[in-house]
Amino acid sequence: MCNPFKLNNVTPFKRRMSIDPSLIGENKLNAKSVKCKDCGDLIIRKNVGTYVKKDIYLPKYNSRRPEDGEVESDFWFLNNMMKFDNIGFSKMVQGNDKTATSIVTPSPPEATGVVDPQNATNPTLHHQHVRYLTCCACDRGPVGVQLTPQEFYIDAKRVAYD
After folding, report:
1. Considering only CA atoms, which of 24, 14, 13, 12 is closest in space to residue 156?
2. Which positions make up the signal peptide (predicted)?
């Protein structure tokens, strides 16, 4: 007989719900300012970041071990680092399947300028070198990742809004 309170051999669902739709404004821009959830420092002003759904591996928040991470999927995309109000950058990280930002969906052609038909049907690890983004004021994070010189992603669930 099955015991409903014993959950052996059950894998918990790890992907969290999408963000609150009220945070996404006209043209998928952030409807509110994006701030550090720990110190309140301003990261992105209102109507600067574009909401995108993209699966990206990030180390857990405030973890010292990059291999302990999770795939996140709700991001604010910026194509220029000068659009940030305040952001900190890690050193360049050379990764592998776990520690690099593992992209499990292809980068949009408009973000990279490169169309790779093979990756459109068989996604693989795209970026071997990344920089993690942190709060510039308190150095907490990562709150996001820089994949290329023109691709910056802030995890919409690792920040606060005002």
Report:
1. 24
2. none
Phi, psi of 156 (to 5 degrees): -65, -15
Where do the structural domains in the chain lie, given as residue ranges?
21-161
- Give per-residue pLDDT as tens, 61-120: 988 777 788 899 999 999 999 999 999 999 888 754 544 444 443 344 444 433 333 333
Three-class SS of 96-142? CCCCCCCECCCCCHHHHCCCCHHHHHCCCCCCCEEEEEECCCCCCCC
Residue 24 carries which DSSP code? B
Burial category of 13 from C-beta neighbours within 10 Å (exposed 0-12, middle 13-18, buried 19 and up) = exposed
> Is CATH 2.170.150.10 correct for 21-161?
yes
φ, ψ for residue 108, nearest 5 deg: -65, 140
DSSP element (H, E) containing 160 = strand 159-161
**Cβ atoms of 86 and 43 closer than 8 Å:** yes
Q: CA 117, CA 27: separation in Å to the nearest integer?
A: 27
pTM above 0.70, yes or no: yes
Do residues 130 and 144 lie in contact, with contact meaning Cβ atoms separated by under 8 Å?
no
